[in-house]
Write a structure and sequence with these properties.
By secondary structure, chain A is an all-alpha fold. Chain A contains ten helices and no strands. Chain A is globular. By secondary structure, chain B is mainly alpha-helical. In chain B, helix 2 crosses helix 8 and helix 15 packs antiparallel against helix 16. Chain B is globular, with a radius of gyration of 22 Å. Classes of the chains: A mainly alpha (198), B mainly alpha (481). Chains A and B meet through helix 8, helix 9 and helix 10 of A and helix 3, helix 4, helix 5 and helix 7 of B. The structure holds protoporphyrin IX containing FE and copper (II) ion.
Chain lengths: 198, 481
């Protein structure tokens, strides 16, 4: 498949989510909203950034040394949409909804542009922080004392909490496995990248 | 296994960082011991220590000792591990920066914010200061721990990176191909095996700690999020047990590296050695329920696991290390000086300290001994006479103070070791008579035990102060290999 085809598919996906009933359907439960729709938008963003890389690298290198600024921005964007209040508002207010769609795609692009220049330790820290956040959010959603959204029920929150824990667990296994038992790609990356902060 | 002449000397910045870790730890140990002494003097009625101050001091002593042991242990690991893999100096400094910022927050939380809920921050203590501390004091303490955790996370990730890029995977770092397969490649050196185990358990522990700390922080400011007390307790003790145990598993690398230099015999990494480290990797993570033996709501299987793991978990590494140390030293014509003497003492302290720990890990015994002075008794034994002796042995070694010890050193050695054993034994005896731990004010009947204990504590602090001064005044002779 050519890059162009992949980008067109990603574009199609974004359109489907933002402008067809698919979006509504995904947003009808909290779990699919947070754990399916938002990640799909981020993935689309990552794909959109693929052709950008060679062009914008020199400028980005300057602002985004080691990918750190970008990764921090992306995590704040992600964290913002983990707040039930804004998730809820996005269902009723088209402006907030557009901001959500746009910022998730943007998050994907920022991630894609920052990740390659991130040092292996930065990447590891981001991954671990990501996992830890899944566990924390899962726990918080499970114990949240009351309905946090107008559009979702308490049980929706509990399902989301379980979803977070499950995804966190799955990611832990996926990421830990190659580190524990080794795989060629990873080894190569690790030997290629050496730190230069001292 | 290693011939130090073949190893490239450390660049200046690494050496400086290692000496900074060790120097800071020497000072902090003495300072925290003085705090310990103050507590014991308060319990002995020799010092009018108000209860609120006692608990602040207890919190600072606990958190300070555990944290500084982590820092000093990691310095020992780093110093020897760099002989085999390529570590990053910048990260070593970054960890120190995180550590010191964390310490500032913690001290602020305790002595300005009034937080006195113990280093174990058990839920719901942080949010129940009863007027002694508010959410801000507690949050500073918890935030400080979090910062320190981030620093160590960076350090262990760098160790992981270095080991993986040399050996391919962490399983190889633990020597699994040699242990489980029939690989006849030479296994990784002892230092690498130990470091791999430590990074595995500590990264896991830090993640658990980072989850529970943030949840408790959320609860501080939004009490409607009621975290489950039992789950937080599980996570806290998982993290706490792993972290404090890992300090000794890092410091012990000094034994694996220094004794061979002294005896000119290699430290053998055989299947038994590898098996012990692999077994302990699992067991050190599975044993923490021994802190929850009194929590009747815990599932029984977990408590039984805690007891079984307590019986088996502490031993493998201890046995291979102590046995290895004895065989390597036996008829080697080793010269006894401060480094080798302290390292050997540490084997003794470690081994002796584990015994009361195992006894208390028995459910039937724990019913009686839980939260008595028996508990500080066992851990002061293997921390003072084991871990800290090991660390000071390394400090003598790295500053080139080997060879015939001076009078002061010999004196300090005996004051420290006898004081350490004495202090721990008095704790144990108090525990045997069911004197509770963590009581600011002791009943008149208990004071008779607290008084000799305070004297012993003074001896330990004095011995450690001499060690520290000898280290700090010999820094210019510090070795770079
Ligand atoms: C001069 C040496 C020392 C003295 C006099 C001393 C004294 C004390 C005292 C009186 C307590 C409180 C006991 C109670 O529960 O009533 C205590 C607790 C503790 N000590 Fe020490 N100690 C010394 C050295 C050390 C060292 C070297 C370490 C670790 C490396 C250490 C780690 C701890 C810990 C973790 C606690 C538990 C705090 C808590 O219960 O929250 N101590 N110590
Ligand atoms: Cu324990």
């Amino acid at each position: 498949m050519t890059l162009r085809a992949v980008i067109i598919m990603a574009l199609g996906m974004v359109v489907a989510i933002t402008a067809t009933p698919l979006g509504h359907w995904l947003e009808s439960t909290m779990v699919s909203h947070v754990l399916v729709e938002l990640p799909l938008l981020v993935v689309a963003g990552i794909i959109f950034a693929l052709p950008l890389k060679p062009v914008s690298q020199p400028l980005l290198n300057w602002v985004n040394r080691g990918g750190i600024c970008g990764l921090i921005t992306a995590s704040f964007l992600l964290a913002f949409w983990m707040l039930p209040r804004w998730l809820d508002t996005s269902l009723g207010d088209p402006w907030v909804a557009s901001a959500k769609y746009g910022s998730m795609v943007l998050t994907g692009m920022i991630l894609a542009l920052s990740w390659p220049s991130a040092h292996v330790i930065t990447r590891a820290v981001v991954k671990i922080e990501f996992l830890t956040m899944f566990f924390r959010l899962g726990w918080l959603y499970l114990i949240s004392p009351e309905r946090l959204c107008n559009n979702y029920l308490l049980t929706d929150q509990i399902w989301l909490g379980r979803g977070f824990l499950l995804v966190g667990l799955a990611l832990t296994i996926t990421w830990a496995y190659p580190i524990l038992f080794g795989n060629a790609v990873l080894e190569q990356q690790l030997t290629e990248r050496k730190l230069s902060i001292d | 296994m290693n011939d130090s002449t073949a190893i490239a000397p450390m660049p200046g910045s690494s050496k400086l960082a290692i000496l900074a870790y060790l120097g800071i730890s020497a000072l902090v140990y003495v300072l925290m011991m003085v705090l310990g002494l103050l507590m014991r003097m308060g319990q002995a009625n020799w010092l009018g220590l108000p209860a609120d101050l006692f608990y602040q001091i207890m919190t600072a002593h606990g958190a300070g000792m555990v944290g500084i042991s982590g820092l000093a242990g990691s310095a020992v690991m780093w110093y020897f591990l760099r002989r085999y893999v390529d570590l990053t100096v910048g990260i070593l400094w970054a960890n120190l920066a995180f550590f010191l910022s964390g310490v500032v927050l913690i001290l602020g939380g305790i002595f300005l914010g009034g937080y006195a809920g113990g280093w174990t921050f058990l839920f719901p203590l942080p949010s129940h200061g009863m007027g002694l501390w508010g959410p801000v004091g507690a949050a500073c303490f918890l935030g400080g721990l979090l910062l320190i955790g981030v620093g160590f996370l960076l350090l262990y990730l760098d160790v992981a990176r270095a080991i993986i890029s040399k050996y391919g995977s962490l399983a190889r770092g633990l020597g699994w191909p040699q242990l489980f397969g029939n690989s006849d490649e030479t296994p990784p050196p002892a230092a690498v095996v130990a470091a791999t185990m430590v990074l595995l358990v500590n990264i896991t522990g830090i993640v658990a700690g980072a989850v529970v700390l943030v949840l408790i922080l959320v609860n501080l400011f939004m009490p409607e999020f009621e975290v489950d007390a039992l789950l937080t307790k599980n996570l806290i003790y998982f993290f706490g047990h792993v972290f404090i145990n890992a300090t000794i598993y890092q410091a012990v690398i000094a034994v694996y590296e220094i004794l061979p230099e002294y005896t000119k015999r290699p430290w053998k990494v055989n299947k038994v050695f590898l098996g012990a480290w692999t077994a302990s990797t699992i067991m050190v993570m599975a044993v923490y329920p021994h802190h929850l033996l009194m929590d009747f709501v815990m599932p029984t299987w977990a408590l039984v696991l805690g007891q079984i793991m307590s019986y088996t978990g502490g031993f493998p590494i201890l046995v291979v290390t102590a046995f290895g140390a004895l065989t390597i030293v036996h008829r080697s014509g080793i010269q006894w000086d401060m480094p080798s003497g302290l390292l050997f003492l540490s084997m003794f302290g470690w081994a002796v300290g584990v015994v009361p720990a195992v006894i208390d890990g028995t459910i039937a015994v724990n019913n009686v001994m839980h939260n008595t002075m028996w508990v500080p008794g066992h851990f002061h034994m293997y921390l003072i006479v084991g871990l800290v002796a090991m660390l000071f042995g390394f400090k003598y070694y790295i500053t080139g103070q080997d060879g015939k010890p001076g009078m002061f050193d010999k004196l300090a050695f005996w004051i420290y070791s006898l004081g350490g054993v004495g202090l721990s034994v008095t704790f144990l005896i108090s525990g045997y008579f069911s004197v509770p731990r963590r009581w600011a004010q002791h009943m008149p009947e208990w004071v008779g035990l607290s008084q000799p204990a305070a004297l012993m504590g003074a001896a330990v602090a004095l011995g450690a102060a001499i060690f520290a001064i000898r280290f700090l005044t010999s820094l210019k002779h510090a070795r770079a290999v």
